[in-house]
Design brief:
It is a single chain. By secondary structure, the chain is mostly beta strands. It has no helices and eleven strands. Strands 2, 4, 5, 6, 9, 10 and 11 form a seven-stranded mixed sheet that branches. Strands 1-3-8-7 form a four-stranded antiparallel sheet, with no helix packed on it.
């Protein structure tokens, strides 16, 4: 199983970023996919998750209305569209799935700063 995130970077408050996670090594359409984030000294927190077919999503309260998770099962990719970014969204963002065990990507840094 391999999860590879991309799309992070530096953005000003109020800006947008779109993260991508390319998955391989398992049957992507059979798995729920999630995005987590982590800042130094804090536990990794769930940001958003999406069901296998993409028909059901859930979000952390802190990102509701600003972030949108989606997936393309034909391309084995999950996305996180982040709008109206705030400094408190600064973190390393990780893609996650569970296939007999937990799998994580290497993470992508998102920094929101003026």
């Amino acid at each position: 199983v391999q999860l590879v995130e991309s799309g992070g970077g530096l953005v000003q408050p109020g800006g947008s970023l779109r993260l991508s996670c390319a998955a391989s090594g398992f049957t992507f359409s059979w798995n729920r996919m999630s995005w987590y984030r982590q800042t130094p000294g804090k536990e990794r927190e769930l940001v958003a998750s999406i069901s296998r077919a993409g028909s059901s999503t859930n979000y952390a309260d802190s990102v509701k209305g600003r972030f949108t998770v989606s997936r393309d099962n034909a391309k084995n990719t999950v996305f996180l569209q982040m709008n109206n970014l705030k400094p408190e969204d600064t973190a390393v963002y990780y893609c996650h799935t569970r296939w007999y065990q937990d799998y994580w990507g290497q993470g992508t840094q998102v920094t929101v700063s003026s």
